Amino acid sequence: MDAMTVAAFKDLCMDAGDALSQARFWASVLGASPVDRGDGSARLDPPPGRSAGEVVWIDPVPEPRTGKTRVHLDLRLAEPGPAAILRAGATVVREPGEDPWWVLADPEGNEFCAFPPNPAAATPPGVFELVVDCGDAWAQANWWADVTGGKAKRPDEGSFAWVEAAAGFPWRAWVFAEVPEPKVVKNRVHWDVDLSDQTPDALVEAGAVVLRDRGGDVGWWVLADPEGNEFCGFPPAE
Questions:
Q1: CA 192 from chain center: how many Å?
Q2: If pLDDT is split at 50, 70 and 90, which confidence band does 1 have?
Q3: Where are the alpha helices (DSSP H) in the chain?
Q4: Domain residues of the chain, as ranges?
Q5: Which position has the higher pLDDT, 149 or 49?
Q6: What is the rounded average pLDDT of the residues 7-25?
Q7: Distance between CA atoms of 147 and 63, rounded to whole angstroms?
Q8: CATH superfamily of this structure's domain 7-234
């Protein structure tokens, strides 16, 4: 991290009712290697040569999924349609229409988007965006760009914005999309960050809130960004 960056994207985490089943599904979709951690949780390791930021942790939780998943992945398909993902256990929520992509749901109902191949897009098959629902896309993009040393951008028209070149971020863009409904429950998908200091004080000064302190057998802080999106902050390795 450079002197202006107080946090770097670390990895992605997903809550699940059946973490091992979810791990098998997402390993198939992402071409990742599932690791059974022996406690009901799993880790997905990306293929060799890929960024460590593409690691996905899948943890069992007792509460069921309620409402729309407000954090999702966009991925580019290798084939004209999502047949392989459907065979793995996904379902179609919406076919391409005005928007030229499929909205799919994983076996636990978490939505994600699948885009057809597009050589002009210069994005190979696989994940190319992380998308976060929000109330104020430009404010969210600027906040995360500021704390991760990235660059916030937005189109001339449209209710979304994105961050490029965030520290540690493994994909093309970190997108914030405005939606009318407010956040009302804990996000089923969240991200972790590596902190530049031994405490999250700089993030708190920037506008984050500490939801749970580090302590005991928990070696990280649980925080929330200005719109309440939960994320975990890890201190530098000693």
A1: 9
A2: low
A3: 19-30, 83-88, 137-148, 201-206
A4: 7-234
A5: 149
A6: 98
A7: 31
A8: 2,3-Dihydroxybiphenyl 1,2-Dioxygenase, domain 1 (3.10.180.10)
